[in-house]
Each structure stands twice: as C-alpha cells, then as structure tokens.
UniProtKB/TrEMBL annotation:
A Pfam family that the UniProt record links to this protein: BPD_transp_1
The name this protein goes by in its record: Sulfate ABC transporter permease subunit CysW
GO molecular function: ABC-type sulfate transporter activity
Topology class, membrane: Multi-pass membrane protein
Organism: Pseudooceanicola sediminis
Protein keywords: Membrane, Sulfate transport, Transmembrane, Transmembrane helix, Transport
Binding partners and assembly: The complex is composed of two ATP-binding proteins (CysA), two transmembrane proteins (CysT and CysW) and a solute-binding protein (CysP).
Task of the protein: Part of the ABC transporter complex CysAWTP (TC 3.A.1.6.1) involved in sulfate/thiosulfate import. Probably responsible for the translocation of the substrate across the membrane.
Length: 287
C-alpha cells in the first residue's frame, strides 16, 4: 500500500499554516493598497475643508443636475435590463433552438467591446451624420447628446449582468416545475409569475444590484455620446472628470465621494443578500 493512502485526504489538499498566513497577508495587503487606500484618500480630500465645503460642492446646480441624471438613467436602465435579461435567460435555459450559442455570445459582447467603442458606434448610428441621422432630424428626434443616447449607452454596457446571473439558475432548475404547472392547467403567464419568477427572485435581485452599480459608474460610452454638455448631459463620473480638469479638487473629490458612497451602499446590500440567502444564491456561482 502506498504511503500516500495513510494520510488524511486533507493533508494533500490543505496548505501549510505558514503558506496560508502568507497568502492571507498578501491578499489583505493588496486589498489595502489597491482598494482601501484610494477610497480613503477620496473621502479625505472630499472633507479636507470640512463638511460644509462638501455639502456646498454637491449642492451646486451642475452637481444636482449630474446626480439627477445619473439616478434617472439607472432607474430607467434597471427595469429594461431586467425585462430583457429575464426573456433572454428564459429562452436560453428553457428552450433548444438554432443560434443559441450565438445568442449567448451576443449577451457577453459588452464584456469584450470597449465602452468607448460602443459609444462611438452609437454616435455613428444616431448622430447627425450617421446612418439614421437624417431620419431622426426629419422627425425632430434627438438621440446623441441627449438622455436617450445616454440610456442606450448604459443599456449596452450593463446588459449582460442580469442575464448572466439568471441563466445558470434557470438551467439548473430545469423545466419540470413549469411542465407540471402547465399540465395542471396553468396559463403561460400564471406559470411564469408563480413558479419561474419566485425561483429566480434572489438571482434577479443580485443581478439588478450589479447592474445598478455599473450603470451609476459608467464613464466611457456615456462620455462619448453625451457631448459633455454641462448641466444637461453630464453624469456624475463625467462631472468629476470635468471638475478635476478645472483644478476644482474639493468639488471633484466631493462628487467622487458621493458616487463611491452609492457604490458602497450597493455593495452592502449585495453582501447582506449573500449572507442571508447564501443557499439560494449559490446556484449563480455554478457555470
């Protein structure tokens, strides 16, 4: 009998204590240097001149406009992405059809295409000299340098998040419950509302949180298609860049701190959901 068989299986797979300590220290150090230190610096600079300077910076008309625009885009993008993500995940997980692999690849496309390229593509399509520019001008419709263009850019970069969270869950659940409901006489909509949706509600919420975080922080695609019109098409990330380039560091860092706070709130909600519903969310990690 081999000497290896005399050892407990854990002895083969478990790292030695010094190695675990070294790896843990390395990860904590990198986290502190790459994440916590920059975040602390942002808040320190934002409050360098006191809370009143921070409140004054986020209360200017430009700042208020950027905050409203960012929240509006997120509020519009989330339900649209949720509806399309649900439909895409439902089609991929529950049905077999030609082009299924192509559809999955298209869902992942925003992960591989630069947001700047996506924004430029929208400008070339909907701009005044674009393919649809003449038709839009004829009907007095404005996409580029307006809210619709910013929304389209945000939808593109955030599209995969909800669908990619739902597809593994729906695939693992299979079709048996839906088929049983239909056999008992349930309509398609009633079956979807009472069987499918409750089974994926936590994965859907998880995807919505990720989508919201990306929607609020998107810069590249939105910067290209917005035209950076101050007070009209400047979202919070764009305004931060503009303020910093104008050497208004306190105002720039104040807006950055506010945006970081919104992101941290999303992270807290995500962590709480993972903690309270770990068993229901575990399926989203299985690919």
């Amino acid at each position: 009998m081999s000497d290896l068989s005399l050892h407990h299986p854990a002895d083969v797979t478990t790292e030695a204590r010094p190695a675990r300590i070294a790896l843990t220290t390395l990860i904590l150090g990198l986290t502190a240097v790459l994440l916590l230190a920059p975040l602390a610096a942002v808040f320190a600079e934002a409050f360098r001149q006191g809370p009143m300077a921070f409140l004054a910076a986020i209360s200017t008309p430009d700042a208020q406009s950027a905050i409203r625009l960012t929240l509006t885009i997120s509020a519009l993008a989330l339900p649209l992405n949720a509806a399309v993500g649900l439909a895409a995940a439902w089609a991929i997980a529950k049905f077999d059809f030609r082009g299924k692999a192509v559809l999955i690849s298209l869902i992942d496309l925003p992960f591989s295409v630069s947001p700047v390229v996506a924004g430029l593509s929208l400008v070339l399509l909907f701009g005044s000299s674009g393919w649809l520019g003449a038709w839009l001008a004829l009907h007095d419709l404005r996409i580029v340098f307006a809210l619709p263009g910013l929304l389209l850019a945000t939808l593109f970069v955030t599209f995969p998040f909800i669908a990619r969270e739902l597809i593994p869950v729906m695939s693992e659940q299979g079709r048996s419950e839906e088929e049983a409901a239909l056999t008992l006489g349930a309509t398609g909509w009633y079956m979807f509302r009472t069987v499918t949706l409750p089974n994926v509600r936590w994965a859907l919420l998880y995807g919505v949180l990720l989508c919201n975080a990306r929607a609020m922080g998107e810069f590249g695609a939105v910067a290209v298609i917005s035209g950076k019109i101050r007070g009209q098409t400047t979202t919070m990330p764009i305004l931060i860049e503009m303020l910093y380039n104008e050497y208004l560091s306190v105002a720039a860092f104040s807006m950055a701190a506010l945006l970081a706070s919104l992101a941290l709130l999303t992270l807290v909600l995500k962590t709480l959901m993972e903690w309270r519903h770990a068993d229901l969310l575990s399926a989203t990690r299985r690919h």
